[in-house]
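Let us practice reading a record.
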Amino acid sequence: MGISLKRLMEKLDDELQPGLFRDYCPNGLQVEGKQDINRIVTGVTACQALIDKAIELQADAVFVHHGYFWKGEDATITGMKRRRVEALLRHNISLIAYHLPLDGHPTMGNNAQLATLMQWSTEGGMDSAPRPIGNWGTVRKTQTVKALSEQLQQQLGREPLVIEGGSHDIKTVAWCTGGAQKMIEQAHALGVDAYVSGEISESTVHFARENGIHYFSAGHHATERYGVQAVGAWLEQEYDIEHLFVDIPSPV
């Protein structure tokens, strides 16, 4: 049972292809722990609560979407970051993080998983990259704004903030999980009826209203819970690793 840390990282890099992305953080192994992995905990963000739960569950590694060492942040290991890293090192737990590569994976990625959850048919990417960040397609059947909002709430467990861009129903939709509100401009250029992402900015409201595109802010955390779970399930099936998903609630 289990897999070596070295082999695990080779498999993850091969599957998630971090070299295809220009990212804001290092993708892959961020904190090195024990060399044999039998139990892995997945979660959205490597916050202290997730680390504490991983310690309680006696995990060998933690796999997240939001890890550490972001470009532009203070590089010193002090305060909150020191406490987090110290806890991982003290308990010999590896921290593994993939950001954009997890958004863009064609089947296990956050965007692919959201489409599956919402039963959207993917027609293409929002950009021309080999693994695009954001997709567009069609809903299962034409919906009103209210109906799509209710479906998002039912599937994600969080009521979305909705900005109506007119009175039209929704047949075509573009989506990008997390903090991708600025990509509404790309969604509009594609000519879709609606755009769904995680967060919203003040300017997003006016863009949606003035350009006739419905906008749904469905939650950064809520839209990005599913990629890490998919990767964990894949590792469990392919490499006989025990996988436990830990959801640390976040209102954002």
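A brief commentary: The chain is about 35% helix and 25% strand.
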